[in-house]
Each structure stands twice: as structure tokens, then as C-alpha cells.
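Prompt: For my understanding, could you write out one protein's sequence and C-alpha cells?
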Amino acid sequence: MRKRIWNLLIFSIVMFVVAFSVMALSLCYGQAEGLVHPPTGIPTLPSDIRSANWRDVNFMAEDGINLAGWLFLPETMPVNGTILYVHGHGGNRLQAIEKMPFLLDAGYAVLMFDLRNHGSSGGDMTTMGLREVLDVKAAYAFLLTLPDLAQTPIVLYGLSMGGATSIMATVELPEVKALIVETAYTSLLDVTNDAVRIRAGLPSFPFANIIIEFTNRITGENLYQVRPIDVVGQIAPRPILFMHGTEDVIIPFQHIEALYEQAGEPKMLYRIPGGQHGNLFSIDPDKYQQQVLDFLTQYITNVPST
């Protein structure tokens, strides 16, 4: 009888471990699928902006992915500089719309486009910044074909995944004059560790590594290589403005602190108390605009940042 109870207990433990393992692997695979194939909408230009000086643009990454975007020009020419905006994971070029007016008013042209597998652009996989660097380089090359913009200082401005991508792209684009980074992550492994621990309540190891291993199998790439923290120091002496909210649970504030610490001078850190992921502009639009325009005025133009 005792042996039978013991065997039943062992069987129950084994079945629990097997069931938990299957459930955990299924959840990890689902998270990997969400990273590689995020839901994303097709952007439509708001009707109240249609009177602006803008046009649809298309260009191609070196691996053949077609990319779509909008180019906005300020009312007065020549322009003071050109902002190349890079959106976040699961978003599209519309993430720049709320910031575009104050940049135009300050005399900057703005190119906003959809990264691969987002919005109206081609591609069927997202690689969290790895292959997206090719998209940013293609957008930069496109700007160089435009006579009115090719000679202007070009600034990369990235949000979240777009911020991480912009850091890595700026290293490969030495002609970029400055970088603005909003809520970027230090590495894909680090931010996945945080997601597993904070939002799922599970230990980071081994689950974060399992998620990335699944993304590697789905994409055929090595996404452990997505590590902006390793290269951000190579951008100096070009200036960087870092912006992040202190209450961000998607990409915790510690990520921007680490990036800021590794970056060379000149650099600035705009810390937004209470800021969460994706709401930094709406918390205090006037102060946000002032921070960005002060940075651009100091390092790019001599236009007053009013």
C-alpha cells in the first residue's frame, strides 16, 4: 500500500512537471511569436494635417524590403535640419504625428516611415532592431537623394525599439549629426528578462533565454546580438539626448540610465517623473518640446527654441 502511494506521488510530481514545462514552453513560444509578428495597423494621415507640405515616399532596404513613409517639409526653406523618426515595436509612422508639428514649426523636415513588418512596409518578420538597422540606413540613403535635404544636418529620433535600432544604426552612419533616444532598451535579453520577471512573475532565467531562442528559430537570426548597450559609446563625439519615464514597466528606467552611463560626451538625460511607456509627450508637451528643441538648438542649429 505504501509503495503504491509512493508511486502515485512520484507519478503526480512527474505529470505536474511535464504539464508545467509544456505550459511554460507554450507561453514562451507565444511571447516569441508576439515579438516577431506584432499586430500593427496601416497608418492613415489625420485629416487635419493634410494641408501640410507632405508627400508619400517609398524606398528599399538593401535586403529587398520595400519601406513606406511620409516626408514633411516646413513652410519656409531652406530647412534647419532633417529629423528621421523611427517608431517602436507594434507601432508605425503615426507615432511621430504628435511631435511632428513642433518640429516643423521650428524649421525641421521630418521623415517618418514604417519599419519592416509594420504599417504599410513589406517584410514578414520583426527582429527587434537587428535587421531594422537596414531600414534606417535605407531611409537615410533616401534623404541623401533629395537636393533640399541632402546637405542638412540629419538627426535620428527613435522610440522604444526604434530607439534601440537608432543607436545601432547611428554607429554605422557616421554622417548622422545627433541622436534622440526615447525609452530604448539596453539589449533584447535585458528587456526580455524584465518582461518575464515584472509582468509574468517568473524567474528571468531560463524563461527569457527560451523566448529569445524561439525568436532565433522563427527568424533564422541571432537576436542575442541586439545589444545597443555595447555600441552606444561609439557614437561620441556626436550628441545624444536620452528621454525616459521613471514609471515605465515595459522598459524600466534603468535601461536608459545604463545607456546614458555608457555613452560618451556630449549627452543629455531628460528624466520624466511618473512617465510610463509611450506617454512622455502627453505628460507635459511644452516641457518635452523645450527639451528637444533646446538640444537641437545647441547642437544642430542656432534657431531659438521657443
